Amino acid sequence: MSHSSETRAAVLLAALSMTAPVPAPAQTAGDSSLVLPEVSGSASTAPAGGAAGEGGGAGAGPPLSPSEKAGYSAPPVASSAKIDVPQFDLPISIQTVPEQVITDQNALSLADTIQNVSGVRSNSNNVEGYVYNIRGFTTTNVFRNGLLVGTAIPQSYDTSNLTAVEVLKGPASFLFGRADPGGVINRVTKKPLDTPYYSLTQEFGSFNLWRTVVDMTGPVAIPGIADKSVSYRFSGSYQNGGDFTDFINNQNIFLAPSVSWQIDPATKFTVEAEYNHQNAQSNVGQPAIGSLPPYFPAPIPAYRSFGEPNEPPDTVRSSLISYDFKHNFNSDWAIENRFLAARATITKADLGGDPFGSPDPVLNSFNRNIVYQKLTGTNYSTNLDLTGKFYVLGARNDVLIGADYFYSYYNYILGGNGNYPINIYNPVYGGVPTSAFYDVASLIWQRSADNFTEFASNANKDLGVYAQDSITLFDNLHILLGGRYDLADVRSGVDSTDFSNYPDLIQPTFGQGYANFGKAQNIHNQAFSPRVGVNFQPVPWLSFYGSYTKSFGANNGVSALGVPLAPEIAEGWEGGVKAELLDHRLTGTLAFFNITKSNYFTPNQSSIDPFAGRGIGLVRSTGVELDVLGKLTDEWSIIASYAHIDARVVNDLPSNFCPPGSPDTCVASTSYVGNSLNSYAPDSGSVWLTYAVPPDALLHGWTFGGGVFAAGNRWGDDANTFILPAYARLDAMAKYQFNAGGARWTAQINLKNIANATYYEGNDAFFNNTGAAARFGVFPGAPRAVTASLRVEF
């Protein structure tokens, strides 16, 4: 299995190493369309310089890929900042993982990519990829080109159509609507180019990985329309295998076509689409065990699964279409409208841990239920922005006036059936009949399931208007002022019963859940969010900044009666230092932050109901972060990060938990004051370096790289009942580039977890194991793995 893949990779690289290095061509004339837009004073304007194969030969040849031309530098952050102001001048922290880093690290998913950014951790599984922790706060705010793709659209996030991943730190609801105060993640997709470029990549590796990636772009000749006015791009991937966990087979098809029309020199219209179809057994994780808290992950192999060989795959189907229309009135003023519509369905029947039957420390018995889930969701996002520049008394004003709207609706079914114990250390599989996985859905619909069942409908409508002015004085003092007003409506209809604990209650139906939604009151919230910041540059390469932002968050969760809880409100103070060194080729940001959040929602630890929980009075996250990106020399590139965070409950409002229909069985909740928040690492960091052999060296054409990713002990839940231990993982890569047959070829090998360290990336507190079951969904990191790829570009 994996051994044969490793052998093939070694043979391929050995054969390539025997080929005499061929000097790579200089950039060809006519390839200028691949150059990133110029932004004065930003590190993104610096030439990549020293990219493998650059400046080698004098003859014309295949063009450099867009990612190599950008190198380890951050492209402009127009979709994150929404104004044409260099990131260096903004009093906020925006960190970027460029495409070249994604390529060098062979990061196949969004979760693999964000490990390069300080203070960001993934709590996603292999099927649903949108739960992260930023600055101590769990978030599902994953954006695409500045528009939210909400939790109603479950999917894994492939990287084959990404040109960068941006993380906007701190309370970001000013620009993006209701968002968690840690920050937001923004995926920046590849756009059509008017210069032809084609690439095909074939990957294979450990755990039977087979992945094909395609990227094609260029102009389209249409009679009656000027040449190069219309361009297309098609990118996508097919993946089979690649998961180290027993009984999990991942098959994923991802397609991303797009078309761009330059209607006239001042007007551009771009349409993009995405389609994702995935069949894969969900990785529900492993249990944390012990006689008393704190519990620790069971000392078992990372590949061990508590699913079954006959477990059917989960199915995810998602589709998306979006457009971007921009018109420049003149060189100073422009209007832009973005729109996104998405729809998705996920159906799954997985074996998960039973929260009312924890692992027996003597018999090593782990109780499992078959948990069925189905979610069908719809998502609409749009915004309209007017941007411009003008001068008043010598001060430049870069202004933004806009409005956005977000609508999300989903129907959700959750239910469980059966009890199938298994030995943690000596599992014997085959005790779950195949029919049980298929029967659970009908049992739920027939109201005869013997475990927790829930039917829910939820709708969110958010309308926001905002205005912002970035004022520049004396060319080195930048003042950012802004305000936003939100009008938000949320309505939920929930009908849920835990039959095992409350058998006398009336069993729910989806019709009743939908009826509750129809009768539910529309909860209306409105809030004003101010923003102010200052950035001072005593010298051109150094700036000091400070900012204050207020954030209007979501109604995270509903009460036992289906009434949405109060919205979360946050305030953030931030200060720091930014530097652009080595002729703007190396950038660094040192940020200090203090964020407080009220009405923080935490799950009820005595229930597996994902809607059961309460709002804690106040939590606070303080910390320091350091991010570095760029080129140390023409040969050495770096992306590095470090974060020290302390996120705790500082004021709690304990309340009684009363099961629906059973007011006499209320249980007082425990105060969490002093507890650490879940999933964040108090100390974490990463360093990734690459060395491109210079053109005059014997090994020209080779690039070598490697790095370490580390994190300290992390609490897995807000109750602080279990711990994910500290770890350090060592990765490496090598690639060789050469020209042959009029094409540019790249052979690359990546080694992950070279030391074969045992580590845990995160835990599932959202998808399959919630509430008291959170400690049964710890995600082990992958053991040692090798991946080889061959890419051809022309």
From TrEMBL:
GO terms for molecular function: siderophore uptake transmembrane transporter activity; signaling receptor activity. InterPro entries: Beta-barrel_TonB, Beta-barrel_TonB_sf, Plug_dom, Plug_dom_sf, TonB-dep_rcpt-like, TonB_rcpt_CS, TonB_sidphr_rcpt. Pfam families: Plug (PF07715), TonB_dep_Rec_b-barrel (PF00593). CDD domains: ligand_gated_channel. Residues 37-76 are annotated as: Disordered. GO terms for cellular component: cell outer membrane. Keywords: Cell outer membrane, Ion transport, Iron, Iron transport, Membrane, Receptor, Signal, TonB box, Transmembrane, Transmembrane beta strand, Transport. It is a multi-pass membrane protein. Residues 1-26 form the signal peptide. This is Iron complex outermembrane recepter protein. The lineage of its organism: Bacteria, Pseudomonadati, Pseudomonadota, Alphaproteobacteria, Hyphomicrobiales.
